[in-house]
Amino acid sequence: MGPITSNQFSKIAFNLRYTNKWLTTTKIVMLFFSAILVSCNNSGDPGLTEEEIDPGNEIIELEDIALSYSNHCGGCHGQDLGSFVEREWSYGNSMEEIIESIMEGYENNGMPAYGSTLSTQEIEVLTNYILTEIDGKTKEMLEEDNPDLSGLISSDDLSFRLETMTDEIPGIPWGIEQLPNGDILVTERGGRLFLVRNDKQLIEITGVPNVASQGQGGLLDVLIHPNFENNSLVYLSYSRVNPNNSSEHTTSVARARLEGNNLVEVENIFTALPYLNSTRHYGSRLLFDRDGYLYVSVGDRGYRDVYPQELDNYIGKVHRIHDDGQIPTDNPFYNTSGAVNSIFTYGIRNPQGMSLHPETGTLWEGEHGPRGGDEINILEAGNNNGWPVISYGINYDGTTFTDLTEMAGMEQPVYYWTPSIAPCGMTFVSGDFYGNWKNDLFVSSLKFEYLHRLKMNGNEVVGHETLLDGIGRVRDVQMGKDGYLYIAVEGPGRLIRLIPEQ
Question: Is 72 known to be catalytic?
Fold first, then answer.
């Protein structure tokens, strides 16, 4: 098992990046309390005596507030609070409504309750911090804060440049896939599919199936058939509404034929049962192996203690199917009584990364832990990856759900992160185009807004490096068929190509 990443560099970068914000907030808070004092003195109020001061009214440092936001909120809402800016607040944006949201949570939408972990005062101060930081900000202002993408960038083993293919993807880009002619398909979580042409023109593809874009759901990954040049088949993973109950959703896979700028002959070939009243932890990545089998990753949907360890359901699993949705008869549980016969591995939390090792062809998977415990795993037929019996993470509110990090019969991760980096898409670099990056694993980070390079020696992580720090929430990273490395970033929605310096 690889070393634990402490992410000290991420913490330092976060501290430096937000120091000015803390100072600004400090001034606002000081002015606020000064105004109260002036008001009290002008009214003739003698003020509180020492006996009247509440001894439990603790002083909370502004730096602690920012770090509390980073630890508890930043992974989902962005370290720059970007998801709060110019948004429709599902549960209200008043001080009182936000306090209630933080205190009570909304479990089905993935929002933990912090009422038993944070004091009322801490929640009030955290709420005030959020409202103060986003006051007067616009998406355009946040985008202006993005790093300069021009110029030469140096890494440990390679110098490279960035080429923006487009920065006009509306919403949140999620998955990318390059066509044989060089054009690139990009999914947008809200339910739209785009094509970025070689001339950088952005075109919307019609015919996408109806997507349940709620919570963490939406249009997720995109993949083309290995024989796309002859059959034009495209695969989409997405969150789907139960046709018999609109409050329930699940992860599904649709197959269609790309005809011009339209998807035709759309059919659903995979549905992860049961449908559940939850809008979180859908997964989902799609991947073909060298034998033409299609793998589909499905998250635990927030039902941690119910489904991942049981074989009678599709939830918290990676599935292996044929390209038409039929089930291979050599799947590990095909003949197991009561088991879902598409299951390849189980005991998985929220898998949003999959890649084939370029030399061995083995299947690697990356998944979100809770608070800490993000994992990279090698998947082999029939393996139990342990969730939630074993984990290196804790609950979002700081409490524990297991004391075990290993157990007989359950696989250890190749690598894990504590604290969490919120990993999404991942890919191995193949070929010689990127020099010493060859066979290294690149993982996108949502929480810390960078690209994480895991330096590999076979199956062992021997070092790591963070690249493009502060570029935005990196949703996907893929090796293109043209030999270039591409990343999809939100805030704004961008598709970027990494060009090695020759």
Answer: no
Among 96, 114, 137, identify where a domain stops: 137
For residue 103, the tally of other CB atoms under 10 A from its CB is: 17
d(CA 238, CA 271): 10
DSSP 3-state of 379: strand
pLDDT tens column, 280-312: 999 999 999 999 999 999 999 999 999 999 999
Q: Say which of 72, 249, 281, 452 is annotated catalytic.
A: 281
Q: How far is CA 7 from CA 73, 150, 389, in A?
A: 17, 26, 25
Q: Which residues of 332-363 are buried (b: 16+ CB within 10 A; e: fewer)?
A: bbeeeeebbbbbbbbbbbbbbbbbbbeeeeeb
Gap between the Cα atoms of 450 and 141, Å rounded: 20
Clarify whether residues 108 and 161 are in a common domain: no
| Domain enclosing residue 102, as ranges | 4-137
pTM above 0.85, yes or no: no
Instruction: Report the helix count and the strand count for the chain, using DSSP H and E.
Output: 7, 26
Residue 293 DSSP class? -
What are 428-464's pLDDT values in tens digits?
999 899 999 999 999 999 999 999 999 999 999 999 9
Residues 57 and 195 in one domain: no
